[in-house]
## 1
Amino acid sequence: MSNDNLISINDLSVDFKAANEIVHAVKNISFDIPAGKNVALVGESGSGKSVTALSILNLHDASHVNYPNGEIIYQNKNLLTQTERDLRNIRGSDIAMIFQEPMTSLNPVYPVSKQMIEPLMQHQNYNREEALKRSIELFDRVGIPDPSRLINSFPHMMSGGQRQRVMIAMALACKPKLLIADEPTTALDVTIQKQILELLKELQSEFNMSVLMITHDLNLVKHYSDYVCVMNQGQIVEQNSVNAVFESPKHEYTQHLLASQPERHINSLVSNSELLIQGKDIRVYFPVTKGFFKRKIDEIRAVDQVDIHLVKGETLGVVGESGSGKTTLGMALLKLQNSTGEINFKKQRLDTLKEADVRPLRKYFQVVFQDPFSSLSPRMTIEQIIGEGLQIHFPELTPDQRMKKISQVLREVGLDDSILWRYPHEFSGGQRQRIAIARVVILEPELILLDEPTSALDVSVQKQVLELLAQLQQKHKISYIFISHDLNVIRSISHRVLVMKQGKVVEQGETELLFNTPEQNYTKELLNAAMV
Amino acid sequence: MKSNNHISPSQRSWLRFKANRRGYYSLWVFLFVFVLSLFAEVISNDKPLIVHYQNEYYFPIFKFYKETEFGGDFETEADYKDSYVRKILTDNDNWMLEPLNAFNHTTISYDSDLPNPAPPSEFNVLGTDDRGRDVLARLIYGFRLSILFAIALTIIGTAVGILAGMVQGYFGGRVDLFFQRFIEVWGSMPELYLLIIFASIFQPSVWLLVILLSMFGWMGLSDYVRAEFLKGRNLDYVKSARALGLTDRAIMLRHLLPNSLTPVITFMPFRISGAILALTSLDYLGLGVPADTPSLGELLSQGKENISAWWLSLSTFGVLVGALMMLIFIGEAVREALDTRRV
């Protein structure tokens, strides 16, 4: 067995020196990467999976990191004790890496060709022409259309999927034996995600290389990996072949992770519920202007002729890839974005009202954003954040009554009132999202727009937040417009689903019906890619 | 992290500020000297603090007493430096308590036998200037005026700068475009020539200077505040505040402003030191405050005229360097304190 192993990691620990303390990021882990296989490191954020991967190439900041024990054996050499010079020969040529964010991992000021030929000239002793020729071949291989033209373009001229393909082509340039892929598709749309993973799989067998895939997405692991190491708090709690782990998870944490796949939480609807909000022929066009006098030469149709309606207590899921206009549509409905078209909220025309007249109505329709880190003002206490809306919409409350209401809503979202005087930076992502939900629920709204509320959260936290939302809906009969790119999440919470593409509604219908018998090709493609 | 629970971001900044000992002590020394200089009349004055005359107490600093009240000849205010008056007030059981430095900034010292500017002596610790006024007294009053002037200029400049930056950054678009062009035009006006012209039209005074310098001083800061607002207005917490139904005013003041103050506070000590220097340079050039006002710049220019009177230039230079250095140390500590990447 040991001869087949490309890399063996034995009893590795990684410590980081913070200001006055030492953080044990990785604790005594051991695993092997067999040649030509795909090994997945799975875990939630902070579990130490990326730290482990970066240790293989020793890419940590040397002044902060310390390896108290363990070894990483590659070709009978311990990589941890190699000099920087020797490591440079291994990096890029024997072991290559691709990162999560294809936008920031390419240098924006150089054309991709320049960045592409660098490793070839460095490690393979190609001259410029040969390197360029080889690059074009590789571009062709990773599925970039018209490679000889696109190779001279700049990173911003390419789409996210194309950039990730460029990253893969760069990684493959020197025929590495191991490719480390750190969340390679997390920043990409589902359909692109699938293409990239298929490509990786093909290339893996073609080049006979090993892949170490770091991911939080169990779905990917199931389809693309051979072995899995499940990490939790710096330790590997379980490692085995994919089938074994998925069929009979042994460790409690693995079972917990697998059980964290969203379940269906749908509250039964009261029949003949009243119509809450209705939008007719909603359009948001952004003019493209040119020249000094701002001549309009074109327009971007972010939302195009959308009809939408929602009854009381209902959840409407809005799905689509990035740029499909789902957030813009939500913002337009709540009058946070200028639009044309008729919007009725409880039989009152919203679109003709002035901003000042909409303001008192705002307590009825609220928003929860995706990123719980930027949605809470860092210089306000939790009490101020949650209480702010009360002061505006319920000015008649005395401070005591207000306080009582705040503690009550905190308990409702699963927090207790000992946190009132703390500041947002002291909380985890899941807790912050609960605070953001508390801030809107306290106003007793009838409609909440949830803009990817769970996308920035770990799976187990995601599940808890979905449960909370379902509970709140049942208790207060709130309607949700739930925007997400994650079909699993949408399926678990929505009564109806609206599929958007390029500003238009492609298909809509009752959730299970739509998931089981999609009519449009685009919907089928999406569902297929999401592997549901 | 755990030990830092319940600490607000501003409290944490204060802890970081305290961790920089040099800046922290500079702040205290600076505040101490400044507060002391606010009581300049008690420390350096030609009138005694307390006079005990014929079993009654008099407080000449606070009250006007005629010389006749002390048995003198004139109806005018008693001249406590006059040897005749001094003799009356120190005879018998009478006594008077004089301030530490017994000169006002306008007092002309007749004690020295040497021509003015006279070198340091037992009467004038730091000597006299070319009109026979005590240099120490002029330094104390001049320091106070400089700091007060600088603080006034900084407060006005900062307030106007924040306001302009807020409006530009929050509303963006046309408002921003118009304002930016205005700032470009306004900023290209020759400040120094305007000062010279205004100095010849109006009677020069401290307030005129504050107004003139404020008209130009706000521009640098508004750019930073504008940038912070442009960045901040698209963040989710601002969108959430809009969705909560807050007015523009409330969003700007409650959500954006506290998160945009980092450059404002960081620049504050440097603005103060810049303002002190501006006043000193204008006084040095003779474009600043009226001639009898105590000013560091005027002392420096006297030092240049009387190059051999080292006590003039050296002492003024010492005061200036000391004040500016402390402000720079404070500024450095503030900058570190507001850097959230530090623990």
## 2
Amino acid sequence: MFERLRRPWSDRRAELVLGAAACLLAVAIAAMIVFIVRGAWPTFQHEGLSWLGSGGNPDAQLGAMENTTSHPPASAFLIHAWPLIYGTVLSAGLAVVLGLAISVATAIFIVEFAPSPVRRVMSPIIRLLAAVPSVLYGLVGILVLVPFTANHIVTQGEKKSVAYVVQLSGGGLAVAVVLLTLMITPIMTALIADALQSVPRPWREGAIALGLNPLRATLAVSVRAIRPAIIAAAGLAAARAVGEAIVISMVSGGVSFSPNPADGTIFWFEPFQSLASEIVRSAEAINAPALHSTLYAFAALLLFSSFVLSLAAYLVKLPLRRYQVSD
Amino acid sequence: MRRPRRLLAFAVASAILAISVPVALAATTVITISGATASFPLVELLTHAYSKLHHNKIKFSVSQGGASVGIADVAAGKVNIGDSSRGPASTDPPGLDFYPIAKYFVCVVTNKSNPISNLTQAQVQQIFEGKVRSWSQVSGSSLTSTIDVDSRTSVAGVLTTFQNTLLAGGKVASPPATQYASEGQLQTAVEKDPNAIGFLSDYFALNKNINAVAYNGIGCNVANTVNETYPGWSFFYEVTKGAQVGNDVGHFINWIQTSKAAKKLIQTNWIPLTITAPTAG
Amino acid sequence: MASANPLAAPQLSPSRRRRRGRRAPVRSWRARDQALFVIAWTAGAGLCVCAAALVIFFAVQGIQYLHPDLLVTRPSVAATQAMSGGILDPILGTVLLAAIGLLIAAPLGVVSAIWVVEYGRPRWLSRIVESAVEIIAGTPDIVLAIFGLALFELGVFSPFSLAEPGGAFGRSFLNAGIIVSAVALPSVYTATRNGLIATPRQLRESSYALGKTRIATIRRVVLPAVRRDVATGATLGLGRIIGDTAIVVLLLGATLRNQPASNTPFIGLLRGTGSTLTSYVFNNSPAGDGNAPDKAYAAAAVLLLLVVLLNWGVGRIGRIGGPLIHEPSRRLGA
């Protein structure tokens, strides 16, 4: 029986078999979208799109869902997830902005100023930072950064001033943004540095010939030329930051609170919760039907947002096509 | 390999698999349990002992998640037994049987550097309901900082017990209280934060790294719970879907409730019961 | 501050200029440029310092808490919630999960890349496959985990985990392994695809000239040529699998020890629940149920060591694993 399989395959058969295996991937993606939307359907059915808005405390609403039975009434699906969405956008946005600034600066350093031995060593360092598992960042955060923030940075006066609203336990926006930035910067740096180096030399040399110093030449020519790459890197990093569940669940303070920028410095120490971290936190109770569909709705939102980020990056890059350095 | 030899090898391998799989499957039973984090240490002890007693023919898979999670899981048929640290509630799914296995109690706890010896009911209610937010307003404490209130998530049976007994029906205000998903996490939080106050089941509270507070002058300990002067107690339950008679699950629960070995294990940190009939949920 | 004409190049003798190479005469720049110079150096140095601090921190904690006997003792099911015992089960769990994940991701990734590069007809289908891989690469792992939960609730997958009265338990090594392979797939696919594109056309053409069919050429000529790329991609994917936490936390059942679902020697373990190094670290940190930061540090040190070794391996293996940041090309006009 195996003899037939060992005879040389015809190209036709090979193409079909290989193509079938490749199509498995497309089928898997389609299945993922279908399953997640199907799981999320009851929440959309009962709440429409109002579950994206604000109103009430998501922690309490999710808690109430954890006791639902197999045919919950429509009122059991009540959820207003805006604080979670706001937390996600806030933490990811701040991390991407900060990370972009640091990445561009580091990439310029690598390409321009780093002496040869340092440049050789940067490569493995960046690859290592990019490969560190997120749970290790979370561990450093929760065992070192959070107690440090709670004991040495947040003052008693600050705690008192928000005492009736929320508890400042050290974990919060600042620690989460620092860790997220640390996680996404290496990848962005690598992409941007690579792109900087693929800018044709004559472009830069022309600028230098006109009298700009090397740094200014890089900024004026190379960085402008690689804008598509910068946007691609930012999009990639944003997708990673939005979907990061473990680190946020370890260091964000565990309360679905919307940090208020009007609070001044306290804003940085207020706890928050993101969509992904809420999924991790509530996943044990997922057998409760109302909670089941709510968590799937969160996942659907995350999936949708990663699509949107890719699409946005693609669209923003389109008009920059004429630079044609890299994409 | 030549074709006939390959076929023979294939036939032998599949014969071995065909015989061994049902034999192996028939050999062990796995009972799945999920639920309360407060009763987890006790259930771990009991399942370990029971497994050994039956020469590992009966194995257990125990996970946590909180009392309500265990109840929901067993109602959905995802596990065989749910651990609960609270009695049946009206919001629970129908058709469940709650078998009490041990008595436990809940203590208010503070950090070691804030060794309050006693709190009245009024003080406990004010602190946990968010009305008093500073240690300077609490007599018995030498601190002047903001109170960090630590509580449990809503799936916790210990939270229900605490609210029903020590808060006399009140509710923990959260925010500002921080919610922790397990007894272990709450214990760590209070141990690390000098300004913290929380509540823990006795196994986690009677610990040299944490300060257990007396309630209305009555110390939080086993003796006061046994003579029922301390009010903050409840039962651990094993919850099943429908009466379990004559099967492995039923035998296990029966062993917990009646055997001497189980009683000895329960007595290490909790309070054993006399035999009680199941409460229909 | 230099008030000299900024358009003037620094006056250096030719020999000095050659020796100094690309050294920038920063002192003659304007204040703003000098500030940016400092910022760039700070950023670069800062990143190095962070990396060094991270590695040193975990190394120190690891030396403090990681005793050799921890590596070979199983986590003990003791009465205390402070999980005593060793980390053998999490290590074995990591190895098992990585094996399952790679065993699924590597063949699938290689085969898909071959099809897309070598065949690729109809065009719309190959574009869909490419997009699918990109989507997989961009999906957060928590969403993949949720998909796994939904997928394995189906009755057809019930043999993959513990059987329960209300349907399958849904969490097992097999289930987690299947989903975690999606994390490694894009690495293998991209590496293989780039390797295939990079092999010269002449290689294939000479094989066709000798009369081999396309599939025979792929098997005997092209694939061996991209072995290094496949290995690099697989190692990168392996690193990502080992570091994944969200999928493991949701799909592996989080039992302290690796508990087989039945007594069948290997299949029971695949269908059973367990833990990996990542979920062990998560559960023992204050964010999980455990109260044992020292065990968490020990497992974290082992995890970091594994990742560092894999990274070093990638650097040694292949083309793609070469310097991430290349030396600038010295060719004229390039």
## 3
Amino acid sequence: MTLELLLQYLVAGLTYGSIYAVVAIGFNIIYNATGIINFAQGEFVMLGGMIAVSLERTVPLPLAVAGAVAATAAVGALVEIAFVRWLRRPSVLRLIVITIGVAILLREGALVAWGEGVRSLPYFTGNEVSALSFAGARISPQVLWVLGTTALIVAFLSFFFGHTMLGWEMRACAANRDAAALCGIPTRNLVTFSFVLSAAIGALAGCVVSPITYTSYAVGAPLAIKGFTVAILGGLGNSGGAVAAGLVLGVLESLSVSLLPTAYKDVVTLTILLAILFVRPSGLFGSREASGLKDLG
Amino acid sequence: MRLSRAAQVGLFAAAVVAAQLLSSAAGKAFFLTQLTMSAYYTLAVLGLSLLMGYAGQISLGQAGFFAIGGYTSALLTTLDLSPQRGHPLVAALVRLHLAVPRPDLYGGEVLSVSPWAACVAAVLLGAAVAVSLGVPVLRLRGHYLAMATLAFGTIVSSVAVGTQALGAADGLSGVPPFVLFPGLRVGGGAADRVQNYYLAWGLVALAMLLLLNLIHSRTGRALGAIHGAEDAARAMGVDTGALKLGTFVLAAVTATVAGVLLTHYNAGIGPSEAGVMKSVRYVAIVAVGGMGSLWGTLSASAVLNFLSLRGYFGAYDDAVFGGILVLVMLFFPDGILAADVRALVARLAPRRAPGGEA
Amino acid sequence: MRAIRFAAAAAVLAAAFAAPAKDPIRIGALVAVTGPASYLGAPEARTLEMVVQELNAQGGIGGRPVELVVKDTGGSPEKAISFTKQLIEEEKVFAIVGPTTSGETLQVKAIAEEGKTPLVSMAAAEGIVNPVAPYVFKVAPKDSYAVEMIFKRMKKMGITRIGFLSSNTGFGKAGKEQVERLAPAYGIQVAVNEVYDKAATDLTAEVTKLKAANVQAVLNWSIEPAQAIVIKNVRQVGLGVPIFQSHGFANVQYARAAGAAAEGVVFPASRIVVADALPAGHPQKGVVEAYKKAYEARYHEDVSTFGGHAWDALRILAKAIDQAGPDRERARGAVENLKGFVGTAGVFNFSPADHNGLDIDCFELLTVKDGRFVPLGP
């Protein structure tokens, strides 16, 4: 394999990996604040893309994206208020099952609202065939947008959780909900806010990847599974880890295509996941204590 | 009023017979087809109910075991071995009556593994996979376990769709009926409908008896202890690891057997049976019926599967399951049968205590 | 006195018009309206509704109104099996249109036979009509015709080494079988032969494999959005060779979705997608234009070949029942002997040995120019 081809496989891997990474980040926010794995995260990504496409018919692209992010954030808040907020000490099992049900409802709602057709936003820069070359490999400009957006989101989150009052309050809430409440932190509202933030980030992800992957009512579930895989691989709760794990997984998948029949690409990924879960459930970059202590209540 | 176990099963048997007689009387004998299919799905769900309710473990991979059962028996019973008649392994199978010639759909004759042998092979495979998966996976908790079982289910689904020998996207068809004993068979046409119906629900009744006995035995109580407080149970000397694994394997085997039987009944199987959505449905049914409540799960399964297979929910089939899942988990977390409506109303519309908070 | 006689005459006339309608003819439909095959099934369901309305507006079949019983299988074989039994035994339908996919059809073939109910499938697999089962027909053209048209063109262009990608659906699998079978006869070597997941969101790695193998053309066989993703990726990695698609590309929304990458892509399709460009004397012109106009006016979306299959299936059944009367065995025989039926997929000529009725002329090679489908010149 020539260097040029290897680079091209790497670029392909970065394309897949960036998509997985940006979805995985959303899982981590809600997990950090509440210990819940939100299986509906994939649907937030789908909603962002679908709403943006509908808006884009009447307003310019940046406004359409902003509008979609705001609308999906509102949906995130609604989901939390309607389905999570008023539960008392729910078990992990119960919450997993509820979020699965919510994911199904959101998907079927999208089917009713938009039909089964496939749609996408226009490329932010360039078009379907444009590509930038470097060192003989070619990369679509949209992939750079995805990578850039992911980097921005990670930077924003680290600033937010590291240097703002609201971010500290959310971290306190995550570390020990009861203690935080005793300190006067409005924990219930913060949980709602974590859903809002997660939904907004998911929607932004959905907008920026839609020119590459197309959006339709059913894209949520496969994205959620991949995103969840990456979030666990990177260590649940660790956003930087999620990005690294996403990119690593994407590159592994891409390289596996060069060696094995592509029909089993998913099998390879999932077997890797199972192996990691057996050996080191805290993921590649997570800490053992963090993965064990995350209790609900 | 708590009925004795025998009375419970007797009541159930009476209901099964009544359903059949009523449907013939009403001229709707064809309901039996969907009821029979529901029975086999119920078998798979009963195992899951035990796992989720008693061992407290979630599994999003139950459909994977169902598919392992179905595909193994479908593959073995449709594979034509006649070109390899001379091969020593095939000759041995024929001598032991494990491979038998049978007429195929178009008048020719094929040599394939007998359904009984295929069933045993499927169950052994299912159990082996369950053990190898269960040992590492059951150490995980909560969402890690959910993810691992989800990954397993997706792997099975991907292998089913990606493998040409398993029919890839089209699945396998032309599976012959499974003759359990002379005169009693799973599968066949409209003429065998009544017999198939009683056979299916009879097997469910048998499974219920076995599971109920298990629950009320020492092992069952130990299981219940695990669900309640695993560390305490271990401190009391209960071998929690072995029990959890045993329950996981038991659930997997019931799903495998269910898969074998339904495949023979439908004369085929497709990759949709292995999909994640199917596993989610099984979980939904267990949640509705009440985790650990076997009778609740059985009723929920019979009703929901029947309605779904009749197309009652039309194009909103998935939406209905999703909606039911959410509603039941929000308002009736212990299942519909255990619903305490008065307590629910009290919680939603609390009366103000005099001089106190709401 | 005259008033009374007048009133009596009017009453008798009114009674005649108000006479109870004749028994409706019930036709069942197994369609994958939702689920992974919904871009096949949803247009099919819409077309069936439209055709039933058209038939009833003209008095139904043989004076009897048509009643359509649609069951949404979601593309899943076990639902198809359950619904087929339900349609035959409970709804007692006269005949069944569908199912949508090959996988479902293969599973219900035996049930229709046992129930002696004519089944006209909208799926394409060879196995549906080979071996021939007396009651089972299909209206979608053979995949081998599509493959042969493409290979003929490739041979003409001097292409001998191709890269082949297909999706892991029944459609992709059927195409793969035909490609592998027919390539040697046309002197074509399939240098790369890969199957991808139907839900794939990006196929750059697979396409890189093609680039690495120095293929002279790319052939993609799939029916879902991935087909647009593939051609985008081919152009993005700088692989400038001719791209060929299957007849699954014959829905202009995919050409639009792929935008600039779709220019110059070559694919076989039935004439419904180029209805406007057909010459005036073409036998299919009247039928496809009428269908296109009615469908687009009613549903505000472009016609596709899948909706066309539904049109063909129901119209063929209607014609057969009209000819033979309301007797299942005779209607079945009428379908089997139907000749010269002009449908959207082509001109059908059934026979006891051929329950598909189409030959290779039903396909025409098309290409994309400025985002629209046009016939490919010689």
## 4
Amino acid sequence: MANTATNPFAVKPSLARTWEKANFWIFRLAAYFILACGLAIIGNIAIKGSRTVFQSTAPFINTTFLTQAPETLYVFEYNGVKRHLGNGEFRVFQEQEIAKAKAAGQPPPQFKNLETFVYSAGGIFPCIVGTLLLVVGSMTIALTLGVSSAIYLSEYAKPGRIVRLIRLAILNLAGVPSIVFGLFGYGMFVVFFGWNVSILAGWFTLAFMVLPVVITASEEALRAVPKGFREGSLALGATKWQTIRKSVLPYALPGILTSSILGIARVAGETAPIMFTAAYVMLDKLPWQAGGFNDFFFQGVMALPYHIYVVSSKIPQNEYTERVQYGTAFVFLLLVAGIAAASILLRNRLRRLYKW
Amino acid sequence: MENPASAPSVAAPRPFEIPTSSVLKAPTPRTLIDVTHLDFNYGPKQALFDINLKLDEKRVTAFIGPSGCGKSTLLRCFNRMNDLIDGTRIARGSIQINGIDIYRPDVDPIELRKRVGMVFQKSNPFPKSIYENITYGLRIQGINTKSRLDEVVEKSLRGAALWDEVKDRLHESGLGLSGGQQQRLCIARAIAVEPQIILMDEPCSALDPIATAKVEELIHALKREYTIIIVTHSMQQAARVSDKTAFFYIGKLIEYADTRTIFMNPSNPQTEAYVSGRFG
């Protein structure tokens, strides 16, 4: 069109165009709003938590917080200076000052305005250990059971009543609330099997909770592998399992790992299933310190999400508990991000290795 | 069919050449595959009706016919690949290979497929290296000695006329080859397990003319050692490549004879109509 004045394709303002623009902005704002919420939540936790986790002096990370068990915080005034000391340190300090005063022939020292705050000193090391153990164990169980079921459902099973029943069961499992899983775990593993509150009970409860996600995603990943690989392999005289093992499963692994990343975040963060089955409010010993190899599986653990719950609602709130809460939440986010990053690295490696 | 009245209805002269080599084959061929009164069903729907066919050893037989006539179905019956689809069954009749009914309960389809290989329409090399593609069939049988595997790789690639092109890149991915090379790789993979019969389901339909010519040349060379059954949509290809041809139409075998006869002198009017291009 040489002459723009007579352009028949020119933009004509109309109601439809206005609605188009309006809706575009509505959708865009909705998406950005979600982004903003996500940033707000994570940012809030990161900012408040990093005050606990990071410190301004070397080594810049509050190693006490990450490597020690929780202790009671003693806040007191001594010689006009307000001090904060953990349980162990306070006793040492107390003995030192009493000994000094005795040696100098003075009366025993007075600790003014002594206040104690539970779980506000020390660190959360046992919780980190507990969460890691729970995640690793339950994901192993969930992946083993889930991938096996997915292989059966997508490669071996003939369509029929039983397969429909299995799929219905998986869907139902996906809809069960996590607290109900906790009760189920308590009834089945803790009481009926007699495992008591233990890592083993926690593993199985969490594994069942995350199973539907793993099965669904694994089935999708298996179905995405082209049929030609299976036909080519079978036509050479391979058994079905040989075909799956060599020509299908390796190429479905990246998809299966993606589902496991989502599973890991869920397993690490759920409090309700582990409340009755694996988690204790406070434990002195780490699981491997309790006895022999067999005893390891029947120990309870402390866990990060349960610790946040305990510190936030079971004890009176103050500035010290807030510090611990946000610190724990931040460490938890970092932990899950770390495990997810490891999973992503593994998945990318597998993608390069089994490129198709 | 020598009726002069029908001659003008054949519009143009047939542009393909009939190989005469099939006439010069001296010994009488032995029947390897014997199909008797075969009825085949996909669920409730019948796909093959009373097929009777004897296929010769160390010959190339072509199955021709319009789409949906059942030629691929019959081909896939020979190595029991139809078992992978739910609801398929042989309603009547039998297929005997070397005198043994392959649908007998004591016949293992896995063993059968080691002796009856298949090349598919869309070439499906595994996304592994060329070397691993060829040795796949041997590894699943437990043969793992490197010297033997190397030997088989070279023999199969030479047999598939691919050795010179890929001998320097055996450990590169099979997917990096061109379409024609991939199909020849699939043929090499099939002959690595030393089958007796090779089934080819429209192997050249996805290939350009030059690649097609190479594969057809390969089939000529292979028929000295293997029995080949090829399903093809192209009548010209059937005429170039095969010794005997079977014409199918809507699940029935219409005519089966020497290729020369089918194309120059068919006895059935439907065959005549198909090969002269009046439908298809």
